[in-house]
Structures are given as C-alpha cells and as structure tokens.
Design a protein that fits this description.
Length: 293
C-alpha cells in the first residue's frame, strides 16, 4: 500500500459533549471534494486522547463509511499501553481502515527493544499496514532512524513513518537507513517541502483541515516537478501554519473550522480549553489574509 500526497489529521467536532456526526461527515466530504489524498481519524488533532474506545471506534467507522473507498483511511489506534493499542488496532481493522497510525508509547519511555516488542505484539494480534508515529514533543521519546529500521526489519506491517521531530537531518536519515521503499510522511506542516525533497511521500497534516486544496496541491506540484508552484503554495500556507500553533493543537484549527462554518462551534474536552479571546482576532486576520475566510 502506498501513501502519497496530503492526508488530513481530521479534527473531531463535538456538540453538547457528544460526537457531532453530521459536521464530521460534512468535513470529510468537503476534504474529498477539495482533492485531499487521504484521511486520518483519531489522531492528536482529532482529540482521541479524550475519547472513549467506543467513541474512537465510532469516529473511525464514520470516516471509513463516508470516504467509501475514495481515499485511504489511516486510523489512529496507538497507546502507551501495548494491550490497549492492540484492542484499538483490532477495532480500526474491523471498521475497515486501510492502515493504523501507531504512536510510540508516551510517558513510559521504552528502550528500542521495548519499542520493537510493542509493535510486534500489536502485529501479532491485529496485522494490517502500520504507520509508526514519531512525535518527541508529545511522547518524550525520539525514535531514531536506526531504531526505526530495527522495527521495520522485525515488523513487516510497519511500512511507513509519520515523522514529527522537526529535525531535517534525522528525517533525511530515515530513507538512508530504511530504504527508498519505506514510506516517509511528514508530521510537521512547517517542513513538508524539504521532507519531500529527501525522498518523502507526503504529509499527515493539521492545516489541511482548513486548506486541503493548498496542501494536496503543493504535494502534487512537487511530484509534477513544478517547484515554483510548490514553493508558492508553501509560502501561502506558512503564516497559517504558524497560526495553527499559536496555542496547543487542535485549539486553533478547530476554532478556524468553526469560523469557516464547517463546524457548528469549537467545543473541546478538558483539559483542552477554547482559544483565548485575545487570539481570536489574530487568527481571523491570518485566515482572511490567506483567503480561507
């Protein structure tokens, strides 16, 4: 299975404390209409950390149903508990997801050997394509390229990595260690274009929630060798990228989706709280300047 282009790390709308299914289906349909290459429910941006397992399963199932085979679905199903990750990945597989996005265990800080055993255990119980997720800022653990190679060698299901270290030297080494057939996806919207230049396949993106055509268009332009267009789109997205992280993700992006009318509101679950009032006009200005509003 090949993952190529822009995949949206979908924001999850809540209404009165529940999943807002209509708004979620609307977001997915708009994403596909705008030319997105794939969808990723239940990631960090989707606030999976504050969902029950039942809710995660429902969100994944909705995404698979709405996509209806038009684009691939990579479902977030990771955990710092191996047994919990097994159960979530079984659920993602049963829902019909094309692959599982599996974060390295957070807080525990396992050794490289522990990481290998973690992913082997998941594969033994729920074999499907795995996208390993390296995000040191969230987990407290940086998955080095040589250790990723160890995982890929021991776990055939591990066919790709979402790299969010922001370290371009490390990113470049992924292909060096793991080979050109191993798929490299950016998990950092600020570094997509340089990641593509060192052999990357695409991105699992936050900003594509609100600018799917721009992000997928940038990836396409790069693959079409239209570097001027790719750079122009990268520069257009740059100020919006910064705005998406003016506060903790997914606060700004969900607020933007509400401003755009795609979500009926910007409801969060504690400990995430709404965007600070003083930041709302700043976000609105950035979105207007970029033509999003």
């Amino acid at each position: 299975m090949e993952f190529r282009g822009a995949f949206t790390a979908l924001s999850t709308p809540f209404k009165d404390g529940q999943i807002d299914e209509d708004s979620y289906r609307g977001l997915i349909e708009w994403q596909i209409e705008q030319g997105i290459n794939g969808l990723v429910p239940c990631g960090t941006t989707g606030e999976a950390a504050t969902m029950t397992h039942e809710e995660q399963g429902r969100v994944i199932k909705i995404c698979v149903e709405q996509a209806n085979g038009r684009v691939p679905v990579i479902a977030g199903s990771g955990s710092n508990s191996t047994q919990e990750a097994i159960e979530l990945t079984k659920m993602a597989k049963a829902a019909g997801a094309d692959a599982a996005l599996l974060i390295t265990p957070y807080y525990n800080k396992p050794t490289p050997g522990g990481l290998v055993q973690h992913f082997k255990a998941i594969a033994a119980e729920a074999s499907m394509p795995f996208v390993i997720y390296n995000v040191p800022s969230r987990t407290g653990l940086n998955l080095l390229p040589q250790d990723l190679k160890w995982i890929a060698d021991e776990v055939p299901e591990a066919i790709a990595v979402k790299e969010a270290s922001g370290n371009l030297n490390q990113v470049a080494q992924v292909i060096e260690y793991c080979g050109k057939d191993f798929q490299l996806l950016s998990g950092d919207d600020f570094t997509v274009l340089p990641l593509l230049s060192v052999g990357g396949n695409g991105v699992i993106s936050v900003i594509s929630n609100i600018m799917p055509a721009a992000m997928s268009g940038m990836c396409k332009a790069f693959f079409d060798k239209d570097m001027d267009k790719a750079l122009d789109l990268s520069l257009k997205m740059a100020p919006v990228n910064r705005a998406m992280f003016m506060e903790t993700n997914p606060i700004p992006v969900k607020t933007a989706l509400s401003m755009m009318g795609i979500f009926s509101g910007a409801e969060f679950r504690l400990p995430i709280v709404p965007l600070q009032e003083e930041n709302k006009p700043k976000l609105e200005k950035v979105l207007k300047d970029a033509g999003v509003l």
